[in-house]
Design brief:
Low-confidence stretches: none
Order of helices and strands: EEEHEEHEEEEEHEHHHEHEHEHEHHHH
Oligomer: single chain
Number of helices: 13
Strand content: 5-15%
Mean pLDDT: 94
Shape: globular
Structural class: alpha/beta
Length: 370
């Protein structure tokens, strides 16, 4: 059962032991001091080391780019050192862990920036409200990035990639999805620029390309991937011609020889985007010839079918890995999946409950036998 999901997968220099991946999941546990990983996070990731590849929660590349309470960063020596035992724990369990590098752009509230406005491709404002340490607050208008800002931010990505290497990660993934900074440059609703970073799709992919080139300089293309979300509106970030935009993005990924591309394409109950727009994965599959990972709202049977048919090479599971630390074992056994509890409090509140206290299938069976 599910034979395709349990075949190894080569992605550049990365070898996944199975094709059931753990998707990036913001969990808000880096509480004291803020933005620094901790032992609780080490337990969480070690518990899930059976995944073919763990993609870490989105991790801030700079203070300017991180606007989520208690999310971790990777810009300081202290943060880098704090990630080392987390990575070691996963490796000790024969797991593979790749860091997702994150700049939130206009989604960062000024409360995180000493009152200064966030930066973005253009001077736009995200809809809705930001999560801040003092509760939800309306987003502020972003400041359009200058060329100097762009080069400085690329340098921040490079430093973060270097720190991820120092921490022992197996590779890095650029967060280019869900309406954050790279996505804000990609799509024409948020990229209103008239210079070489705006206008035609090929220009709007320029920032993404230059960041990826910096990551490749540090890691080599065979250990670098990207996450994209060609799925309609994401936090107010949208595009008038997704096929042209994401076709151009896929071409960049192909030309640079990235190890993998992960696409978030939500189903009916998905978050961060409309779900009634045509999926771009078939187009991207035609252009990008490396390992393609699909994400969002999959059952085990659907994942098996899409991998077996060649629609994708692996599937990344998000919310199921919250409450099923041994998800891949449950899929192998055809066993039930535990639901999430105390949602959404357990997703983001910096406590052990709803984070590291979900039982494995073996633990459930042992308890039932007593």
């Amino acid at each position: 059962m599910h034979e395709a999901l349990f075949q190894p997968l080569q992605m550049g220099a990365l070898t996944a032991k199975n094709r059931i991946f753990m998707a990036p999941l913001t969990r808000g546990r880096a509480a004291d001091p803020m933005f620094t990983p901790n032992a609780l996070m080490a337990t969480y990731y070690r518990q899930r080391a059976g995944a073919g590849m763990i993609l870490t929660e989105a991790t801030g590349i700079s203070r300017e780019g991180l606007g989520w309470p208690s999310a971790p960063g990777i810009w300081s020596d202290e943060q880098t050192e704090a990630w080392k035992p987390i990575v070691k724990g996963v490796h000790d369990e024969s797991g593979m862990i790749v860091m997702q590098l994150w700049h939130m752009g206009r989604i960062v509230h000024p409360v995180f920036l000493d009152g200064q406005p966030p930066v973005s491709a253009s001077a736009t404002t995200a809809p809705g409200e930001a999560h801040t340490p003092t509760g939800k607050q309306p987003y502020a208008e972003a400041r359009a990035m200058t060329h100097e800002d762009i080069q400085r931010t690329i340098a921040d990505y490079r430093r973060a990639a270097e720190n991820a290497r120092k921490a022992g990660f197996d590779g890095v993934q650029l967060h280019g999805a869900n309406g954050y900074l790279v996505d804000q440059f990609l799509r024409d609703k948020t990229n209103l620029r008239t210079d070489e970073y705006g206008g035609a799709p090929e220009n709007r992919t320029r920032f993404m390309r230059e960041v990826l080139e910096a990551l490749i300089d540090v890691w080599g293309a065979d250990r670098v991937g990207i996450r994209l979300s060609p799925n309609g509106d994401s936090q107010g970030t949208d595009d008038s011609n997704p096929a042209a935009t994401f076709g151009a993005a896929a071409k960049v990924c192909e030309e640079l020889g990235l190890a993998f591309v992960e696409l978030r394409e939500p189903g009916p109950d998905g978050t961060f985007g409309q779900t009634d727009v045509p999926k771009q994965s078939p187009l991207i599959r035609q252009i990008y010839t490396g390992a393609l990972i699909l994400n969002s709202d999959y059952t085990a049977e659907e994942a098996e079918a899409d991998v077996a048919s060649g629609k994708c090479d692996a599937v990344s599971f998000g919310r199921p890995y919250i409450s099923n630390p041994d998800l891949e074992q449950r899929i192998a056994a055809g066993a039930h999946w535990n639901p999430n509890k105390d949602v959404p409090k357990s997703w983001y509140f910096p406590i052990p409950e709803g984070y590291v206290d979900y039982p494995t299938l073996a633990e459930e069976r042992a308890e039932a036998a007593e």
